[in-house]
Structures are given as structure tokens and as C-alpha cells.
């Protein structure tokens, strides 16, 4: 795997296209969930895009890492995605660990809040996240908010 951590302005046109295509292919088409995928958070100056490419140079892993105050009071990791050909190979665990490391490096004083699809609850618990909300529907899909505490009061 080759990993790149980029701001929006650092994404090449091809990388941006690949990111948007992967997000739409999975979140909109595969999950049959029409929703506004482009939410203007990608372009924020502090937003970070973590891209993982396989040996053939195909984008197969991605997250968007946002600072506190954008999606949640805490920093957040979202748009967590593994392309179909990359699933079941442990890439998701590496992707999340690298995303957590991005938050630690960018905003060391922040905890991490995520809105996770409920069926992925156990996966995120393996990363250290704990549930901190009841189940809610987002775009017709059951979600739960989860928190990873990095800083102790």
C-alpha cells in the first residue's frame, strides 16, 4: 500500500476524481443511498484526505479527517471507505490507525468523534471507540456516534 495525506488543494485532478468516484460508488450506488455527498467540508483549509493505493496504483482506501468544530465538537474521521477489491484484507484497520495518527499529529489535544454505521460498531470498538449515542437514522441507514478518547482531563 502507498499512502498519501493531502489537503484539498494538494489533490491532483486525477486523485480528486478517484476519491469522488470511490465515495459515490460505495456510499451512493452500492448502499443505494442518494444523499448530498459533496458537502463543502472537503475544501476546508484544515481538512485532511488520507488516500491508500494498491500496487496497481488504484485508490482502494480513503478517509477524510476534520478538525474540531466542523462535524462534531471534537476532531472527526469520516467517509471511511475501502473499495470492494480491498475488503477483507485488514486494510480498514490500517486505514483507521493511520487516520487516528493524523488526528494525533494535527490536533494532539483533541479526542475523535465519529458517526458510524451501526453494523460497523464492533470494527470501531476494536479501534478503541466507544458508543456515545443511541442509534439514529442518517439517510435511512442506522448510525451510532462513537468517541475515541485520546486526552484525559
Give an overview of the whole structure.
The protein has helices spanning 13-30, 91-106, 121-126, and strands at 2-6, 48-53, 59-66, 75-82, 112-117, 130-131, 136-138, 141-148. Strands 1, 2, 3, 4, 5, 6, 7 and 8 form an eight-stranded mixed beta sheet that branches. The chain is an alpha+beta fold and 153 residues long. The model has no long low-confidence stretch (mean pLDDT 94). 26% of the residues lie in helices and 30% in strands. The longest helix is centred in the first third of the chain and has 18 residues, at 13-30.
**Total strands:** 8
Low-pLDDT segments, ≥5 res? none
Strand content: 25-35%
What structural category arises from helix and sheet content? alpha+beta
Put simply, the count of helices is: 3
How much helix, percentage-wise, in residues? 25-40%
The chain-level mean pLDDT equals 94
Shape: globular
Query: From the alpha-carbon coordinates, what is the Rg to the nearest angstrom?
Result: 15 Å
Q: What is the H/E string?
A: EHEEEHEHEEE
| Largest beta-sheet characterization | 8 strands, mixed
Question: How far apart lie the N and C ends?
Answer: 36 Å
Amino acid at each position: 500500500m502507498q499512502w498519501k495525506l493531502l489537503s484539498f488543494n494538494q489533490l491532483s485532478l486525477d486523485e480528486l476524481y478517484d476519491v469522488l468516484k470511490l465515495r459515490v460508488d460505495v456510499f451512493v450506488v452500492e448502499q443505494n443511498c442518494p444523499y448530498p455527498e459533496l458537502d463543502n467540508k472537503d475544501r476546508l483549509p484544515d481538512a485532511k484526505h488520507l488516500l491508500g493505493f494498491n500496487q496497481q496504483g488504484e485508490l482502494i482506501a480513503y478517509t477524510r479527517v476534520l478538525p474540531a468544530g466542523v462535524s462534531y465538537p471534537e476532531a472527526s474521521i469520516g467517509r471511511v471507505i475501502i473499495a470492494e477489491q480491498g475488503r477483507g484484507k485488514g486494510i480498514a484497520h490500517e486505514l483507521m490507525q493511520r487516520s487516528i495518527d493524523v488526528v494525533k499529529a494535527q490536533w494532539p489535544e483533541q479526542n475523535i468523534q465519529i458517526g458510524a454505521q451501526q453494523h460497523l460498531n464492533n470494527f470501531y470498538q476494536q479501534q478503541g471507540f466507544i458508543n456515545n449515542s443511541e442509534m439514529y437514522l442518517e439517510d435511512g441507514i442506522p448510525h451510532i456516534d462513537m468517541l475515541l478518547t485520546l486526552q484525559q482531563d
